[in-house]
Design a protein that fits this description.
homodimer, about 425 residues, alpha/beta, six-stranded mixed β-sheet, five-stranded mixed β-sheet, 16 strands
């Protein structure tokens, strides 16, 4: 991607409007076509500022083709909305009065990500530049707990994070919640989160207040974080693991949902079709070899309640514990077999390991690459086309926070006109 | 699809321009914007006529929103080009003079499909209504023969088919050639057709004349034929077999090529990863269980040279030969395992069996459905979402001929202005 921002936020790329219910409030006054045109120009100027450091208003005019007067008026509006800020006056060396450089604001509107994991809760606030400014995480098992209790604890964590951001002069926008489960077609409903034990849970119903976050699937958010922050190409397969295994397919810079919105199931691909029976009822599914429990169990490890199982695995693997290494390698072989099939079918430009897989990448990748080399012989997949995400397990919650920032960059009028990017 | 033509040609749907190098010649004279507008209106009128039987000019005006005068002028141009013809005068019962009904022409421009199979050569001509008018097929083994010899024989067959169509007042347009191989990025080059023994063969170089056909991959053409003729939904996976196994993924009414154009490889998905070694070098590939040779060999059958192996299998299966039935069922189980993985990953609306699989569908489908039912437990795939194509082994050559017809329906100016839909 050529328009990657130096701040880590993609200027163009995916349109969050494609995957969210972002709705823009219209202000009365100007006719629709004029408002629409100004909105497009605001977005153009904002993305131009996002796309490169140290541009002046004159530079923005040069790059966008808008007049300097129009750019000044648009920049003023973006500054008032808290989206853009001006730097110090620079002596440009050119004729005319010296310009001030423009940048996305590191104050004001910010993305707000929340996360319910099987073994943790999280909250984070990311500024418009894509920098993480507030980060809170509690390790605790949420499996088979009362969803309302989990929500109450997360709401406390969210309130703390909000207070901390306000002290930093940040204004967290409507939060997005990463959940390890399948979303319903109806917004706000977690249809099925087997590792939490949730079935048809409405976040609004369990949230102790009016500002319930909008839930999104963690694997999808992890893939979007990868797309937006981590320089991934526009066509890739993102495979991540926490308790389960989640995959997400990004095609032309957008999440691909399939005909029913169920695309991206990799955990129950048969790796050894006559193998042991999986909880899903089938035999030899990838999850039996490559999810967290499978690796812990093959390594002969038992994770104490409340402890971080991935830290346990990385500690043991770093200490060259043979049982742990062999369990991770077995997972890598199973992943490689499944990924070889997936790559043949969809021909992605890259495969990105996210979540726990990213943190185990140093041990997983050699086995995965070996399987791909052995199995994809006619149209080989280069070893460097499979990588571990630099975001690691932070991917989904970062994706949740960046989701809102992408919505603002794509359509700043949702803030300049109503101060809410979610239209509520 | 709601705009399916009663003649079997889709009015809207896929744009062949997306998958071919179709290029439109511009005639001088009118400014580009006027020519573009008229071209769009020609296409609109043509697709409206294609979309429903027995419309009058007044009906077309009513449906398109164009004036009756404009429609008449456009219809006249389409009639002169041989794309539309008028039926007899009908007493409409309405006020005004009686109208003539309009229809796509069953004379004039026609699609021309050619095919090189591992065991046959074929030529067919399809009129604008999608009806097959000329059909020629020779059973003969083409494996590891001199490509120029094969091309010479196909050129003779094509010349016979052309002569026969001309007697029917049809004008076959530039031919498209179905080949069981991988196409190169460079147009006209078959990069790799392992079952023919071809490597980097330029069709233009081996063709005995100036009118070399444009090669396309048979699995892709089979999928497009399914999309255009056989009422398939816009998101489906098409899996076909002749000597090899070919898959093609249609997303939103278009072939999905993947990052490098290699998407749709299913034959080397590992079904039993520790199974026997495949010619590709990997172990336990689907082709080892489910391609023609594998089924013949498991059934203990030897196909005489020049004979049709699929007819042999269907004859034996119809005679309830236990070895043949068990070999086909083994192929169905292997296909079901591979398809369960594919469905989980890409969530298609349907899976369509094409080619030889369609002809063996009555025996394959129960096993495939059983595997899908057993393996896709969380998000079941309904049994009727997997079907056998009614086109059977005619799919790829029909797709080749329909390719050109779709190009004309999408952009009739390529004919009205230059009489060549391929721009050469």
């Amino acid at each position: 991607m050529s328009d990657r921002s130096p701040h880590g936020v993609t200027a163009g790329g995916a349109h969050p409007g494609e995957t969210t219910s972002t709705e823009v409030r219209r202000s009365p006054g100007r006719p629709a076509s004029q408002r629409g045109m100004r909105g497009q120009n605001l977005a153009l100027v904002l993305r131009t500022v996002a796309g490169q450091d140290e541009l002046s208003r004159a530079d923005v005019a040069g790059r966008t083709g808008l007049t300097r007067a129009a750019v000044s008026s648009l920049v003023d509006e973006l500054i008032v909305s808290g989206l853009v800020q001006e730097g110090p006056v620079t002596a440009s060396g050119k004729a005319g009065r010296p310009g001030r450089t423009l940048a996305l604001s590191d104050r004001g509107p910010a993305g707000f990500g929340l996360e319910i994991g099987v073994g943790h809760l999280g909250a984070c606030v990311v500024d418009l530049r894509g920098q993480v400014r507030v980060w809170r995480r509690i390790e605790q098992s949420n499996a088979h707990r009362d969803p309302a209790e989990v929500a109450a604890e997360l709401a406390d964590l969210a309130a703390d994070a909000r207070a901390e951001s306000e002290a930093l002069h940040l204004n967290p926008l409507a939060p997005v919640l990463s959940v390890p489960g399948l979303l319903d077609q109806r917004p706000g409903i977690v249809a099925h989160a087997p590792n939490l034990g949730w079935q048809d849970v409405s976040i609004e119903d369990i949230w102790p207040g009016p500002d319930a976050p909008r839930p999104e699937n963690e694997a999808n958010l992890g893939a979007l974080a990868e797309l937006w922050r981590a320089h991934a190409p526009g066509n890739f397969l993102h495979v991540s693991a926490e308790a389960g295994i989640g995959a997400a397919l990004v095609i032309d810079g957008r999440l691909y949902g399939g005909a029913r919105g169920y695309a991206g199931e990799l955990g129950h691909m048969a790796v050894h079709p006559d193998g042991p029976r999986c909880a899903c009822g089938a035999r030899g599914c990838l999850e039996l070899y490559a999810n967290q429990d499978a690796v812990l169990s093959a390594a002969g490890l038992h994770n104490p309640p409340g402890a971080d199982p991935v830290a346990l695995l990385t500690d043991r693997a770093n200490a060259a514990d043979p049982g742990t290494l062999s369990a991770i390698e077995r997972a890598g072989d199973a992943l490689g077999i499944a990924l070889a099939g997936a790559i043949g079918l969809i021909d992605p430009a890259a495969v990105v390991l996210g979540g726990a897989y990213a943190e185990l990448g140093v041990w997983l990748l050699p086995r995965i690459r070996h399987q791909l080399e052995t199995r994809l012989t006619v149209r080989p997949f280069a070893p460097n086309q499979v990588t571990a995400s630099p975001l690691g397990r932070r991917g989904p919650i970062l994706g949740a926070a960046l989701h809102t920032i992408q919505a603002v960059l794509h359509n700043p009028t949702c803030l300049t006109e109503s101060q809410s990017p979610e239209g509520r």
